[in-house]
Amino acid sequence: MSKKEECEIIQDLLPSYIDNILNEYSKKTVEQHLGTCKECQIKYKNMKENVGEKEIEIKKQIDYLKKIKRKTKVKIIGSLLGCVVIILLGIYLYNTILLHNIQNAWENLIKSDNFYVEEQLLNNDEGTTSVKIWNKGGVIKEEWGTYKKEDNQYHIQSVKYRTVGEKENIDIFFEPLKQASQYNYVLATKETEKANPSHSFFIKQDTDNIWGNFIYGMCAPVMMQVVGIDTKDYGKEYYKIKLGENEYWFDKETYLPIRAIEYGNQKEFYPGTEVVKANYDTVAYYKYQKDVVTEEDVQKPDMERLKEEGFSVVIDLTEPPSEEEYMNQLIIKSKES
Questions:
Q1: What CA–CA distance (Å, rounded) separates 293 from 116?
Q2: Using one digit for the tens of pLDDT, what is the confidence trace for 210-231?
Q3: Domain that holds residue 134
Q4: Model pTM greater than 0.85?
């Protein structure tokens, strides 16, 4: 083999030699030739320098691509986070506007001079509790009663008359109530037992702490979930809102509450124990009418006529008495009448 042919073979092997991928025999052959051939030494040196420059260039390209990849990754993550923030902000604003509309609708109703409101609360044992409110010009009549399962009849439990901004109120109880209480009402009742003028969870004394306000206060926009808009069981579109495990329905057109379900809200115990016998859901329905209340609907009763019909009358327009004073007044006035 001529020297020229040997050099050509060695020069063909130089790239593999530089990359260190030759077997031991080929590697030794190249090294022996480089030790004696200046021409191949020069070729080897130039080739190695070129490879080094290429490696540097490749490394630069790799580093650049890594930077691009990192930047792209950051942009993608940032875009995703931005989308999540925009979606959450959109939900928050939507819920806030919805709750604002609900609050305004309720406030507009109770600030009007003439409205009728009814709450129907399902009681699993007894039947359906009904709370009816008539308001005309700030004169309010509130009637509590129960549609009982045992006879399918409506039984009035109490009627309350009050005027917004006035101290004098009239409470008439048609059934004995068991818990003592303190309050400064004119009281008319046929019972000399302890009376409980329990206010409706639905409407308070001056109609400013109502169920609508209760929902608005508890339902922070970040806590509530607007399940959607439906027409099932109602015939009109309504918003269905979940707060925890509970559900609240609001008329889409009026934004007024029409239904509430509080799951597992009522417990029944075995007699004489604290062992839970059953859990019941609290279900309430609501109705509204404006400009239908007449003077007769809210006309306060004649106290003298109540006396003649056998009611005991207690008048107390001062500060609420203590429980003992209240009960003494009730008993004394009952004996006097």
A1: 7
A2: 444 444 444 455 566 777 777 7
A3: 112-336
A4: no
